[in-house]
Amino acid sequence: MKAVRFFGHKDVRVVNDIERPVPKGDEVLLKIGGAGVCHSDLHIIDEGTVVGTVFTLGHENAGWIEEVGENVEGYKKGDAVLVYGPWGCGHCKPCQQSKENYCDHQSEQAYGGGLGLDGGMADYMLVPSSRLLVPIFDLDPVIAAPLTDAALTPYSAIKRSLPKLMADEYVVVIGVGGLGHVALQILREISGAEIIACDVTEDKLAFAKQLGAAYVINSKDADATEQIQKITGIKKAKVVLDFVGATSTIDLGTKVVSLDGDLTIVGLGGGHYQYSMNGLPFGVSMTNPYWGSRTELMEVVGLARQKKIHIEIEKHKLDDANEVYERMRQGKIKGRAVLIP
């Protein structure tokens, strides 16, 4: 079968000689409908965050069950499903709470398909346990694949702060990319706070307006902080969601977040923050959440089935993987790219 394989630093190849896996036990073989292309892949490819192993890329995956192992119950051939991305041990306390993204044994094991183990940029994908599947019912797997990260990650980050996202508050979203553009829709649907969106290009700011942002600010502007504070007034923004994570965006967040607010850094931009007692307003919680729980992915599927969120996607063939990654490096992907076998 065909697959997009990672062979080492900046070495990604499309190969055609991978043997199709055969599931056993609780394993499930998935016929891939679509595999999302995530900026996290570039950290693997360009920065070597996963070393010493060769594997198939792709951690945003959806498709149809092709074959199941002898111990699988509740699923049959043809069922449309998502693959929950973070694979924990399955038995520690966080895993039992559906939070495999915070598995106690994360540091001891390869952490999911496409993240050290074989992922879904292939004709077929072997999922090690049926517990990692989430039914999508009538959703198209091509459209649904990015829900597993591009929607789940912002959804989980927003849920952390939901009690603070009241109608008399402001929330700042920094970065209207693959995750940020979904965050705007989620905020629009489940919170009452007024949304201020920040990005560095006018087309993404216009896109943010379409998705429900009440205000848009170009974060390259020298007075971006002052523009935001003029909107929020003295109270500032109760929640800041940073989907970039660069030093400059973290710095912006620290200046516009309110007393007792939440500064949530989701993006993997490699930024730094030098803590000082007077650097943040008192009571601020600075967090770096990772992905979301499997039950939260079920909730995301519910939002998508109700047509309350929609991921802007570009469709590409597996053979185009390296071209898509290069366009991502150049910031030319609008929304999410999906590879289709």
What would you note in describing this structure?
The protein is an alpha/beta fold and 341 residues long. It folds into two domains: 3-149 and 292-340, Quinone Oxidoreductase, Chain A, domain 1 (Alpha-Beta Complex); 152-287, NAD(P)-binding Rossmann-like Domain (Rossmann fold). Helix content is 26%, strand content 25%. Strands 3, 5, 6, 7, 8, 15 and 16 form a seven-stranded mixed β-sheet that branches. Strands 11-10-9-12-13-14 form a six-stranded parallel β-sheet, with helices on both faces. Strands 2-1-4 form a three-stranded antiparallel β-sheet, with no helix packed on it.
Using brief descriptors, characterize the structure shown.
single chain; 341 residues; alpha/beta; Quinone Oxidoreductase, Chain A, domain 1; Rossmann fold; six-stranded parallel sheet; 10 helices; 26% helix
Give me a quick take on this structure.
The chain is built from 10 helices and 16 strands. With 341 residues, the protein is an alpha/beta fold. The protein has 2 domains: 3-149 and 292-340, Medium-chain alcohol dehydrogenases, catalytic domain (Quinone Oxidoreductase, Chain A, domain 1); 152-287, NAD(P)-binding Rossmann-like Domain (Rossmann fold, 3-Layer(aba) Sandwich), CATH 3.40.50.720.
SSE topology sketch:
Layout: E1 3-8, E2 11-15, E3 28-37, H1 39-47, E4 55-56, E5 60-68, E6 80-83, H2 93-96, E7 124-127, E8 133-135, H3 141-144, H4 152-161, E9 170-174, H5 180-190, E10 194-199, H6 202-210, E11 215-218, H7 224-232, E12 237-242, H8 247-256, E13 257-265, E14 285-287, H9 294-305, E15 313-317, H10 321-329, E16 336-340
Parallel strand pairs: 9-10, 9-12, 10-11, 12-13, 13-14, 15-16
Antiparallel strand pairs: 1-2, 1-4, 3-5, 3-7, 3-16, 5-6, 6-8
